[in-house]
Design brief:
By secondary structure, this protein is mainly β. The protein has one helix and five strands, in the order βββββα. The protein has one domain (3-78). Strands 2-1-5-4-3 form a five-stranded mixed sheet, with no helix packed on it.
C-alpha cells in the first residue's frame, strides 16, 4: 500500500500537512487552501505556490509545495478592483 502526502513549506521553512495537491501560482491562505478569485480585498495574508517538489519512496509519495508570501501590492492584481 502506498500513501500520498501533501505539505506546504512556508518562506521561513515551517512545514504543514495539507489535504491535497496544489498547482504552481495557486494563491492560498495560511492553511494551504486555495482562495477564491477575485479576492474581496488586498488586506489579507496570502501565499503563492512558487515551486513543487515530489519525492517518491517505497512507502509512497511526498509532495512539497513551496510558498512565497504576497504583499498587499501584489494582491491588488487578484482583487475585483484591479
Amino acid at each position: 500500500m502506498t500513501t500520498d502526502e501533501y505539505f506546504i513549506v512556508f518562506p521561513e521553512g515551517d512545514v504543514q500537512e495539507i489535504g491535497g495537491r496544489l498547482s504552481i501560482n495557486d494563491v492560498v491562505d495560511i492553511n494551504g487552501r486555495p482562495l477564491a478569485l477575485p479576492l474581496p480585498t488586498n488586506r489579507m495574508i496570502a501565499f503563492r505556490v512558487s515551486r513543487i517538489r515530489v519525492s517518491e519512496n517505497r512507502g509512497g509519495k511526498e509532495t512539497l509545495h513551496y510558498l512565497d508570501l504576497l504583499s498587499a501590492r501584489e494582491l491588488l492584481a487578484y482583487t475585483e478592483n484591479s
